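User: Can you model how C2E sits in this protein?
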Amino acid sequence: MYDKPNTSTARLLQSAQHAATVLLVEDSEDEAHLLYAELMARGFNMDYTRVQSRQEMSHALDAHQWDLIISDHVMPGFDSLSALETLRTSGKDIPFIIYSGSIPDDLGHHAMLCGVGDVVRKGNVDHLLPVLHREIRGARARLSAREADNRLQTIISTDTLSGLPNLSRFCALIDANCDDDNEPHGALLYIDIDRFMRINQSFGYQAGDALLTMIARRLGECVECNATLGRLNADRFGLYLPSATDHAAAHTMANWVLKAFDMPFKHDSYELWLTPSIGIAMLPDDGENALELIAHAESAMTVVKRQGGNAICFFQPELNVGTTERMALETDLRYAIDRQELEVLYQPCLDTTRRIVGVEALMRWNHPLRGPIPPTRFLPIAEEIGLIVELGEWVLYQACSQLRTWQLMGLEQLTLSVNVSAVQFSQPRIVTTVHRVLKETGVNPANLILELTESVLMQDAGSTISMLRSLKNLGVRIAMDDFGTGYSSLAYLKRFPIDLLKIDRSFVQELPGNDEDAAIVRAVMALASSLQLQVVAEGVETEDQYQFLSSEGCNRFQGHLFSPALNAAKLAEMAVDVRMGCVRRQYSMLH
Ligand code: C2E
Ligand code: CA
Ligand code: CA
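Assistant: Here's the modeled complex, given as structure tokens:
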């Protein structure tokens, strides 16, 4: 049992603003009250509770926050050193003063070595008073240092932009969860926002940051409350779902995340559509701690990325083999230009008279050990590691030099199409690069066509249009490649200053039998004619396809029906052959 000061005193104390809360460890109520009265008389404003056993003291320590403990030395069944031990067990930092008439000096010294703030002879209140003030000050200083430290910990473990735990905190939270639970289960999602770099480049970093904050908020809203969300770096988020104990549950929850991106993000007057790539690692099968899980979920995420993003992939041990191979390819690719392993092939583009009117430059990588590697395999790697810009410039230069050679050979009208990747297009230097290459190779800009995929053009209409204008000011033409595979509506096309449309192979493949594809092609042709765009059909493989397309008004064709991509020598041979018919033999003999 422990008692409170009498009610009138208590009221008085409650009204006092900074009354120190004191826990008195004292068996005599009279002594307690005497001390209280003497201290109050000297202006020490306090509120106290008296305890006299270990049990009472523990209870009081749990129940309240105390500024001070003043302990008698000897009590029935309890003493000051046991009281000190009780305080230690509670883990609290409260100044502890022994106020006793009977403690021997050596025990007093020993007590001070054990953490007692001071030992004061009972009755010596004038000595006790400054000790109490000093100890309270010391404790407050320690408290504010601890609070500052906690704040600092929060700051350094929180991502300031999103307010989410950063990588190290995220790991610590997951690891704590893994340690706490005897049989920890759950799923770790690694979420990367597709093509986020474009946002920063088009709208600036401030807008990028604002979007990341919106994404963080949306991710937080779409998951259950026991989930842990963190920002791992840049546009990458981690999400730990302890209740996703099997693949099916993890898949369902990952789908919620995908769905959260079904609505556009608003920036100024723009509506931006973003998609995530999600890799999942399961606990405990795919890793026993946060770092293992994150690494494995990340490698699953890169698989999604390579397949175009906006999807979910679970980690499989074989993925790591792929990663190793990919890393080897990455290294080799860095040297591919210097080692002359890259080659440009040219696929002819024909008109309705089946004359070659142009060529499309298509890159090939002849790997010394792995053989030919298709562009669909190595270009995404080049995009990711930033090598695409260099590769793109190399192709442009090679192809333009080649075109100039052909023109000097008499193929003056031949046009050249060069593919421009998203990353390349996002860099303003493309304009100066194209300008420089045209100048250095002497190619007439009117003969150069830059092919951009529909998805690149659609990313952000405002900055795209001004970039296209700058390119067109150089005199080159612009083609929208793979038309139909992205998200553009036909109406959208009007906004872009483009010259050509390339109907994607997927719409050509099932012509003329597929009614839906036939209707799409008809609609595209009608719109193109009203916008005065030239249409090129890609991937024409059969005579039927060709006939249907030309009957619908298409007058440019590419595809295996005519020719695959050829090396420069073979292409020239074919072009001259078609143009001059019988001259072919003589031309071959000359070369
Ligand atoms: P794309 O620009 O749509 O190029 C057409 C692709 O279709 C080429 O594949 C071509 O060989 C193939 N093709 C042409 N006719 C037919 C056909 O009748 N049937 C079938 N099945 N396929 C046909 P390729 O050369 O493998 O290139 C794939 C993609 O890689 C290209 O698609 C383009 O997006 C990209 N690419 C190629 N070279 C470059 C380059 O130098 N720079 C950039 N940025 N991208 C490139
Ligand atoms: Ca193309
Ligand atoms: Ca294409």
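A couple of observations from the model: The first helix runs from residue 7 to 15. Residues 8-154 form a domain with the Rossmann fold fold (CATH 3.40.50.2300).
User: Helpful, thanks.
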